[in-house]
Amino acid sequence: MSSQAPELPVLEKEKNESTSSVDKVERDSEAAPEVDPAFERRTMWKVDLYVLPVLTFVYSFSLIDRINLGAAYAAGMGKALGLTVGARYSIVTCMYFVPYILLQLPGNLVLRHFGVRNWLTFLTLAWGSVQLGMGFVKSWQGLLATRFMLGVFEAPFFPALLWLLSSWYKRHELQKRIAAFYLLAVTIGGISPLLAYGLSLLEGKHNIAGWRWIFIVEGSITIGTAVLAFLMLPVFPEQNKFLTKEETAFVVKRLNEDRGDVTPDEVTFKKVLHHLSDWTIWAYGFMFTCAAMPNYVQSYFTPLILAGMGYDRKGTLLLSAPPYGPAIPLTMAVAYFSDKYKHRSSFIFGLALMCILGNGLVAWHPNNKVRYLGVFITNAGNSGTIPTVLSYASNNVVGQSKRSVQTALTVALGAIGGILAATCFRAKDAPRYIPGLAATLAAQGILIILLAVLTLRHMYWNKRSREGKLAEPLEGQEGFYYTL
């Protein structure tokens, strides 16, 4: 148990250029009268209908453009570019994650400087162009370069969306929104193998291979979504234009009552180092590493695993989509009860056990039908784990600068799960990929250990706070308690 205070003394908040407008919104919120439940439901429903669909739609194309490599490989790219030689496919897969990890935090730190819509629109247009270019590469080295650039432009996107999403909701209503956002995006992403199969049927059209059409068409669609991003992407609550003055004041008021951090504090190098000195945000990030690994295995290697079961190209691509189905009701049920009881850790533990069971079946069961069932179980458990871990981390952070660091670090460390998946699933281990599946099992064990350490730590500091034994409130926020 740490012998230090739960949080270093809170640095004095520095006002940025938008302070005056934020202060005005906060003054309005303080003066706002108490509202009835019907007004609250109507306002938050309005927020949900505006914020969630747009974020989900744009992110889904980020996800599709990231995970379509396996489908393109199964559709003929592997042989065409010589990716079947040695570890080339794993190297190409890994290359995406190098800039993706390194650029998460810098990308989040400039979000407010450039503006939400300007920054995220540029990123969407840029990676869509790269995705389109992947359809014209002539060698595996060219594919390697485009995957690197894809990682550059996609890196700041997901943490920015998480930060933006968490800025609109109270701590214990967040997981339902993250789960809905994630599930809708994954569901759209889940049709990626079906879309890829359909596009692969364009084989030979205009003398272009079917696997090339996957990148060309999907990249073109992403470029089109950049227009939607510029017109429709939501901004931070105090900057929004879609709510009335009274609704905005209400949203700001309820957020300040919940965690008191609507006012943005300037992000400085000193402050970033201060936040990075908190070991707990690293622990959340490594939990996400472990949670993300089965997700990347599902995305990149399920077509290869299914091919190892004896399915042809058509069967491999079509059977990659159904395992996403059962994940939807389970993940939403977990989110509902997790928010209702304001509790995360027990759900994460149970979902990690599901991943262990599913991976074990895929790795060692002799019957291919049961192994395919294991893919369903793994995906259901993993789809529930990811939003729960993200909510667990977000719930236990106070302050916008710290939240920007925490979301970026969590997603960056989560990308290590992609590297682990790419390096552990080696071509020489086909068709069963036992070492890779065993490594995925080990990751779930590490996740459970980190969860236990954090939960015991949070219980300890919550108990001391309730007993009045702390010189300062937890996370520098009066009335704050860690979510277990």
TrEMBL record:
Query: Which residues belong to any copy of the Major facilitator superfamily (MFS) profile domain?
Result: 51-457
Its membrane topology, per UniProt? Multi-pass membrane protein
Q: Which UniProt keywords apply?
A: Membrane, Transmembrane, Transmembrane helix, Transport
Asked if the keyword Nucleotide-binding belongs to this entry, the reply reads no
> One Pfam family name from the record?
MFS_1
Q: Which InterPro entries match?
A: MFS, MFS_dom, MFS_trans_sf
* Cellular compartments per GO CC: membrane
Superkingdom to which the source organism belongs: Eukaryota
Task: Give GO terms: molecular function aspect only.
Answer: transmembrane transporter activity
Say where the protein is mainly found: membrane
Q: Where is the composition biased (Basic and acidic residues)?
A: 10-29
Region annotation (Disordered) maps to 1-29
List localization entries: Membrane
TM region(s), chain numbering: 49-69, 89-111, 118-136, 148-166, 178-199, 211-236, 279-297, 317-338, 345-364, 370-393, 405-427, 433-456
- Protein's name according to its UniProt entry: Major facilitator superfamily (MFS) profile domain-containing protein
Q: Which organism is it from?
A: Ephemerocybe angulata
